[in-house]
Design a protein that fits this description.
This protein has 280 residues and is an alpha+beta fold. It contains eleven helices and nine strands. The chain folds into two domains: 5-132 and 152-156, 3-Layer(aba) Sandwich (L-fuculose-1-phosphate Aldolase), CATH 3.40.225.10; 161-279, Class II aldolase/adducin N-terminal domain (L-fuculose-1-phosphate Aldolase, 3-Layer(aba) Sandwich).
Length: 280
């Protein structure tokens, strides 16, 4: 069932003016700008989802069922009656930074978890479709809820420095990749102590990469998709971005050292052990 269009448009406008959502939109604008400036979101690359269900009362959630719905190829029963801010497919992070509400949508998961409804803040079109990586986002968001994790954000970006590393044969395993990243900068071990999960090249937007990502995020807060990019989870969008930023810094230090024609020393095992003993 689809409700009265004028009523729905008024509801859409009210949603994007909701006081709890405004700070999130501000953070979306800031992180989108960072991603664009760092070159981690070329053209329409990069996407995110933010669980904002806690901002709504049950009577507000009931109204989402009046919007056009889209069936999911797979059910997500634990996401029943949850709502997410999701970046729009085909949108650019540079445009997101300037006008977040016009480049993302609200995605409400139906009572059965088998379909979703879209609400858009863009007055110039009927709706903005969610990212093509929606399947992976929903799978990760469901896992976070199942584990009662504090993280509510999933962020995907094409982090140039980390993609470059996965092109190099010495870093085709998690062990070698994380050993190098921890060794380049103490902050990496401090703030990403579990390291990054590494997923061999898999076609993006598929059930296969969603399944592989879930398995890695069971033990990590960030995964590196070989020759493609990264996905991180965080309590806020800024938290998720920070994880990518820290890893990129280590990768950049390594690549800068290599560009001199010399091999970087890295932190020694005793130095890494001292950091773990002192701060963990």
């Amino acid at each position: 069932m689809i409700g009265n269009i004028d009523s729905l448009l008024n509801f859409s406008n009210d949603l994007f003016q909701k006081k709890e959502i405004k700070p999130v939109l501000g953070q979306v604008a800031g992180v989108a700008q960072y991603l664009w400036e760092r070159g981690w979101a070329e053209r329409n690359a990069g996407n995110f989802s933010v669980n904002i269900t806690s901002f709504f009362q049950d009577r507000e959630l009931d109204r989402f069922a009046l919007y056009p719905f889209f069936p999911l190829t797979k059910g997500y029963p634990d996401l029943s009656r949850t709502i997410f801010l999701v970046s729009g497919t085909g949108t650019r992070m540079r445009d997101m930074a300037a006008s977040p509400a016009e480049n993302l949508c609200l995605v409400y998961i139906s009572d059965t978890g088998s379909a979703y409804h879209i609400v858009t803040g863009n007055p110039d079109c009927e709706y903005v479709k969610p990212t093509s990586e929606l399947v992976t986002h929903l799978a990760v968001q469901q896992q976070l809820l199942q584990k009662k994790s504090p993280e509510k954000v999933v962020l995907h970006a094409h982090v140039t420095e980390l993609i470059a590393l996965t092109q190099l044969p010495p870093f085709k395993t998690e062990e070698s990749l994380n050993a190098m990243l921890w060794g380049m900068h103490p902050e990496t071990l401090l703030f990403v102590p579990a390291g990054a999960g590494l997923i061999p090249y898999t076609l993006a937007g598929t059930e296969q990469i969603a399944t592989a990502t879930l398995a890695k995020l069971d033990h990590h807060k960030v995964v590196v998709w070989e020759k493609h990019g990264c996905m991180a989870v965080g309590q806020t969008l800024a938290d998720a971005f920070d994880i990518l930023d820290i890893l990129a810094k280590s990768a950049r230090i390594y690549l800068l050292c290599k560009s001199t024609g010399m091999e970087p020393e890295g932190l020694t095992e005793s130095q890494l052990a001292e950091i773990r003993a002192t701060f963990h």
